[in-house]
What we know:
Elements: H1 10-19, H2 30-36, H3 41-53, E1 57-59, E2 65-67, H4 69-76, H5 80-99, E3 102-109, E4 112-119, E5 134-136, H6 141-148, H7 152-160, H8 174-187, E6 190-193, E7 200-209, E8 212-222, H9 228-249
Antiparallel strand pairs: 1-2, 3-4, 3-8, 4-5, 6-7, 7-8
Helix pairs in contact: 2-3, 5-9, 6-8
Amino acid sequence: MANSPSGDSVTDRVVRVLETFGPDRTVQTAAQIGRRAALPSSTAHRLVAELVEAGLLERDDDHRVRLGMRLWELALRGSEALRLRQAALPYMERVQARVGEHTQLAVLEQDEALFLERLSSPSSGANITRIAGRLPLHASSSGLVLLAHAPTELQDGILSKPLARLSPETITDAAVLRRTLAEVRRSGWVIAPGSIEAVSTGVAVPVRDRGEVVAALSVVLPRDAPTAEPLEALRAAAAGIQAALAADRR
Ligand code: PHB
């Protein structure tokens, strides 16, 4: 890739442009993108125009841009995330029908839990999770399951830095977190009351593919709701998803 005078490649700059979009910043002008990606204005306008031309960005009537459907289409094509989501959906629907609360599927992405799917009903309680959104590993039930089965270097990295307190009950003590992770590995589930918001309890279990934990399946319940039946529903669903993933490989 040709490098700019500052030494960064075209790919670097395109990635910087795409990364200016976030869950809370979905529509921007080319000038805003340029500032946030630290690009000269002319470069930003040219790159945005080229990305719009290629369909990776889309422009609205006000000349502002958002991530394009083409990007979504290419990203999902053949992806492991799509395969996992497709295998999981029928079982997630069962959990949702039985428990009536938010049911969600997350994978480990860098050092956070990335949510691939969330099913909710109009009567479901509070939930801050968004599809294609992320939650911290130490402060959500899905995150705790994913962290418990993550590579040791990732665990050590998280445990060696201050653990942000997102609610009064977030685990912020490294020794407590280490013990919790060991317990999650031993029991095969976690119940996390108030770990990210005081009004909810997350319950999560691992989903395995060829023996490896590839996802966490969770429900978000009102804080004091019973957890036994949701946990049973999650465990049955995880077994179903694992069988579906294995069948898909044959
Ligand atoms: C959790 O997984 O623990 C969790 C996630 C989202 C919430 C509450 C709890 O809003």
